[in-house]
Design goal:
mainly beta; Immunoglobulin-like; 4 helices; 27 strands; about 45% strand; rod-shaped
Amino acid sequence: MKPLSRFLAVLLVCLVALTAHAKGIDVSQSTILERYTLIDGDTFQYDTGFLYLDGTFHVITSITDYYSFYGISPDDLAPFSGKPIMNEELYNSYHDLGIIPKWTRSQADFSLGFFTYVIVAVVGKGDPNPAVIITTQPESDWTFLGSVAFFYVDAEPWHSLTYQWYLNSKPIPGATSDSLWLSNVTKNQAGVYKCAVSSGGPAVMSQGALLTVVTPISIKKQPSSVTTKVGKKASFKVLVAGTPPFHYQWYFGTNLISDATNASYTIPKVQGSDAGFYWVAADNIHTYVGSSVAKLTVTP
């Protein structure tokens, strides 16, 4: 049955229902609704039936048909698969006339063929809005202080969704799209970002994505040159700033010093062969800096 033929059949039943309402009869179980259910990549099940006030859908006719015959696709039906639907104009007319006070509709409407439909449910017996499925979760990221950051969430059905981003469980004013751009990032914007996605009913919360705001590492105090006698102790120190954690590696000339991975390096008993130049490389995972060279002079 083509969508137009179905519409005319439903319209005829609706006219009967209007007559029934005029006579004081409850039409909530007398109005025929449609239901499409995805089966596989080729076929769908088409039902007509009644929506009872207990929230159940009672089928009166059912067929299995092919998408290609009607020029529709699984994506067309996915938002309301398995849920009763009604022509939007008819629903609005019924609602305005007070005929269906115990029914509610989806926030969004959906085009199918030449007509627009809404999902229908009994108040308190189910959510008429499409189920939200988050297909791409926001990912943790880092950025430099004063730079930019970006988060993104993808969900289905994409054409009927609203979004609200949160930072550390607090809503971000104006952050109501599927993507979130942050510019000139400050330290206060570091934290966990989540997005609540809704199709009109209860929102589905995304996974949390951690934003780390990085201050590049810099050297606040360079290692100083040292003069000492043979057999005495010699120490070199560096002071860095930035976003921790910090990692260090000391060098003697161009040679890496084994196990010298702290902010300071000490030679307990200096030998003549220790004389030379010392420096340290430091990083905080995201940035790197090398110190100036300190000279160790050894005297007898």
